[in-house]
Amino acid sequence: MDTVNAEWIKLRTLRSTWWTMGIAVFVALVLTALGAGAVISRWDPGHAPDQAAMGIVVAVYVGVILAQLPLGMLGVMTISGEHASGMIDATHVATPARSRVLLAKAVVLAGAAVVASLLIAVPGYLYGRVVAAEFNPSALPGEAWPVIAGGTLMIVATTLLGLALGALLRNGAAAMAALMAIILLVPFVARMLPGGEWGNYLLPTYPALQLIGQVPAIMPGWVAFTVLGCWAVIPLGIAALTGRR
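Request: output the structure for the sequence above.
Response:
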């Protein structure tokens, strides 16, 4: 717990943390409001209350996923900044177990990512209910929870992927470039290659979009969750092993 507390102090005392989270939440909220307004305005008057509630949740979690890159960059900066300033040496003197330091950073960043998703989702959902009031949306239907879990897991996975890339590459610019390539560039290139679509299913973007109902469901829900979870855990495991060496 002492290591987690130390990492929390470091994270919350950096202005870049608040700027990054603030920009991510603000941009996602604006896009959520615009998207929800545009989608709801095109609904058929016969929308059932459960359909309306589900539509609001999906619109909100599209906005949540849009915040993933800024938070992934926060994950990168959390450790690459220490390498750049040399503070990582003091950290490892205080806590020689490097894997423990990485795990503590992961715990703190995962918590920050969940808080960011709540700061986007709760106001976005309330706004959507106001805009869709004429459809009398019901409370959250059961099928909304996989959407909520999938969107939240995506934002956590991208944040932890950024942390892992920062730990592996030890260079902020290189790690951010690698993060953007994995999230944006590689899926686009994969669709252009023969058979690349199958590889695209194993990247983090497609499973997350499937869970929030934005692409065809080509895999069971548990597989989509597993793929996302692997993108959060496996790179961190590789970074921990590399750090020990």
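The CA atoms of residues 181 and 187 lie 8 Å apart.
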